[in-house]
Amino acid sequence: MTRILVIDDDAAVRDAMVFLLDVHGYEVIAAEDGAKGVAALEAGPVDLVIIDRFMPNMNGFTAIKEIRLKLPQTPIIAISGSISNESSASEDRRFGPAFGVLRSLPKPFRPEKLLQVIEELLAAGD
Amino acid sequence: VRVTVIEAMPYDRILASTVAVRNSSIIAAGGATVLALFLAIIVARSLSRPLTQMAGAIQGFARGETATVPIVASGEIGMLARAFEQMRADVHAKTAALEHEIEERQRIFDMSLDLILVMDRKGVLLRVSPASVPILGYGPSEMVGRNVTEFVHRDDLARTRKEMRINRRGRGQLSFDCRYSHKDGQAVPLAWSGVWSEAEKMHFFFGHDMTERTKLALQLLHSQKMDAIGQLTGGVAHDFNNILMVIMTTMDILARQVADNPQLSASARVIQKATERGAELTQRLLAFARRQPLQPRETDINALIYETEKLLRPLLGVQIDIEVALSADVWRAMVDPNQLSMAIINLTVNARDAMPNGGKLTIETKNITLDGVYAAMHGEVTPGPYALISVSDSGTGIPAALIDKVFEPFFTTKGVGKGTGLGLSMVYGFVKQSGGHVNIDSKEGHGTTVKLYLPRASDADVTQTAAPSAAAAATAGKEASLAAEDGLLVTDVAMRGPRENAILPHERLDPGVRLLAKPYRGADLARMGRLSLQARGPPADQPAARSR
Q1: Residue A17: which of B243, B249, B296 has the nearest Cβ?
Q2: What is the pLDDT of residues B212-258, one digit of tens each?
Q3: Is B509 helix (H, G, I), strand (E, B) or coil?
Q4: What pLDDT, on the 0 to 100 scale, is given for residue B286?
Q5: A107 and B242: CB-CB below 8 Å?
C-alpha cells in the first residue's frame, strides 16, 4: 500500500487531506509540523510527502531539507498557502530544485488536482 | 603892599601844554580804541570760530556727514564741543547699528522661505515678502495695497477673519492653518503665526508653506491605510483559504457518495462552484496583501511582454490599437514571470474598459534608476535600479479625487458587476511584494499610465532564469504547458533531472528543447533531460527562440 506523509499545521486541512487520501486507498501518516513530520519518518519510509511550506515549529523549507537527508528520492509536493510575512518571500525564493520539491500546489486546490499530481509523481518514480 | 605883577603870555603858549595833554589823550584814546577794537576782534574771533565750527558740524551732522569736528577751543566752549563730539559719535554708532539691524531684518524678510505679510487693521497689505512668488505665484508688488482676503482660499476666509479679530484683541501670538489661493488657482496650505502690534496698528503674519508636508503626511497616511487593509485582507484570506481547502476536499468525498442522486449531485456541484469562486477571491486578496507565494526569477521582461501581447490582442478587440515600444537593453528583472504576465493582462483589461470607444494601448519598457529624492517623495520606495514597464491608455482617465483609492481592494469605477475591484490591487500587491514600486498617473479625459518599477536582477540573485512565458511554453508540448500554467517550469522540469541523472550536453538536446532552453543558464541546461523526452519543441521561428 502506498504510504503518504501529510504535514500541515492546520488541523482541519490535515484531517480533510487524510480523509480524502484514505478514501482513495492510500495509507496516510499525518503530522502537525515539520519537526513531527521528520520524526514520523523514523517509523519507516514513505512513498510521497505532502508538506505545507509555511508552518510554525520547523517550517516547510527546513523540513524539506531534513526529509531529503532521509529520503533523497521520494517525491515531495509542497503546498503553498499564503506566506505569513514578507521575509518568507525571500525564503520562498530559495525554494528551488535544490530542495527537491517536485511539484508545488497553491492552496486551495481541487482534490482531483492533488490526486492527479500524486498519481503522476508515483508513476514517474516507478 | 600889594604888588601886582602882570605877565603877559601868548594864549597859545598858555594853552600849549593843555593841548598837548589833550592831543596825547586823544592819541592815547585812539590807540586804546584801536587796540581795544583789535583785541575785541581777536577775542571775538577766538570765541566764534569754535562756535562756527560747531554750527557747521551740527549742520553736517544733520546732513548725515560723518567727519569729526576739530576741537581747538578750550574752556566752556571746548567742553561744549567735546560733549557735542561725544554725542555725535554715539549717535553715529547707534545709527550704524540700527542700519545694520534694519539691513539684517530686510535680509531675513527677503530671504525668508516663509511668507511674511504686514497689513493694517483692515487687512490691506503694507509689506509682502518675496517668498510670495514661489508660494503663491504673485510678486510682492502685485499684492501690496490689496486686501489680504483677496488671496485667502474661499473656504478659509471666515476663519482667517476670525483669527485676525482675535489677533487684534491682543491675545498674544496666534497659530492657525489656513489655505491661500495660488495665482494658478491651486489651494496652498499654510501654517500661520501672527501678532498684532497695537503701537504700529499693524498685523504681522508668518506663513509656512505646508504643501510638501501635507503631501508627505497624506502619503504616509495612505501607505499606512494600505498596510492596514493589506494586513486585514491577508489575515482573512489566509484563514479563508484553509477553510475553503477543507470544504473543497470534503465536498469531493461527499459528491462521490451522492453521485447516483441527481438532486444531491447538483447541490454538490453548486457548492463546489461556490468554493472555486471563493478560492479565486482569496488568491486575489492574498496577491494584494503581498502574501501570495511568489516564484521570483531573473526575467527578460521584453520577451515576457512580447509573449503576453499575443494574449492581449484578442482581449482588446479591433477598436483598440496596441503599440509596444521595448527598450532593447532593458535590465532583467527579479520577478515572478507568471504573476507579471497576469499583472500586464489586468492592466490591459482596465485600459480596455477605459476606452469603450476605442483608442490606443501603449506598453513600454526602459531602465530607470530611482534616486533618493524620488524615494523621499514617494512612500515605500527604495532608491536603486529598476526595469520599468509602463502601460498607457488613451481612455477616460481617473478623476484626481479617486486616484489614491484605485489600488485599494474592491475599489472600482466600473459599473456594478463589471469589475471585481481587485485587478489593480493585485498588481499593486504583487509589485510591492516583489520589492518594486507602482505609480499611477492619470488625467481625466487624457488617459492613464500605470508604471511598474521592477527590481533589477543582480548577480547575487538566484541563478534561475525566467521560464518562457505560457504562450511560448504551450508550443513546446503538454508537459511544459502544464508546468508553465503552474508557474513551475523551471522547478518542475529541473527537478526531474537529478533523479534521472539526465545531465545532457547541449548538443544532445532535442533542437526544440535547445530553443526552449535558450533562456536558461548553463547550469540549468543539464537538468532539462526530462523535458527533451517530452517536449515536441517549437519550430525555429517560434516565440521561444525570441525569448532572449
Answers
A1: B249
A2: 888 888 888 888 888 888 888 888 888 888 899 899 999 988 998 89
A3: coil
A4: 85
A5: yes
Q: How many CB pairs under 8 A join A and B?
A: 117
C-alpha pair distances (Å), A78 with each of A8, A49, A52, B239, B514:
10, 8, 6, 18, 29
List pLDDT tens digits, range B349-372. Answer: 889 988 988 999 999 999 999 988
- Taking contacts as CB-CB distances below 8 angstroms, the residues of chain B near A97 are 464, 490-491, 494-495, 497-498, 527
Q: A96: which chain B residues are within 8 Å (Cβ-Cβ)? A: 462, 464, 490-491, 494
What pLDDT score was predicted for residue B56?
A: 80
CA quadruple B473, B479, B484, B490: dihedral sign: negative
Of A33, A27, A22, nearest to A46 by C-alpha is: A27
DSSP B405: G
* Residue among B194, B209, B198 nearest B118 (CA): B194
Interface residue B212 vs chain A (CB under 8 A) = no
**Distance separating the N- and C-terminal Cα atoms of chain B:** 181
Nearest CB neighbour to A20, from listed B249, B289, B492: B249
Residues of chain B with C-beta less than 8 angstroms from the C-beta of A124: 496
Q: Quote the pLDDT of residue A97.
A: 52
Best CA proximity match to A66, nearest among A28, A96, A36, A91 = A36
* The three cell numbers locating residue B232: 486585514
Q: In 3D, which of A97, A109, A96, A53 has the Cα closest to residue A78?
A: A53
Sign of CA dihedral B19, B24, B25, B30: positive
Contact status of A58 with chain B (Cβ, < 8 Å): no
SS3 at position A50: strand
Q: What is the ipTM of this complex?
A: 0.82
Q: How far is A10 from chain B (nearest CA, A)?
A: 7
In A, which residues are within 8 Å of B501 by CB distance?
Answer: none
B468, B484 Cβ separation under 8 angstroms: yes
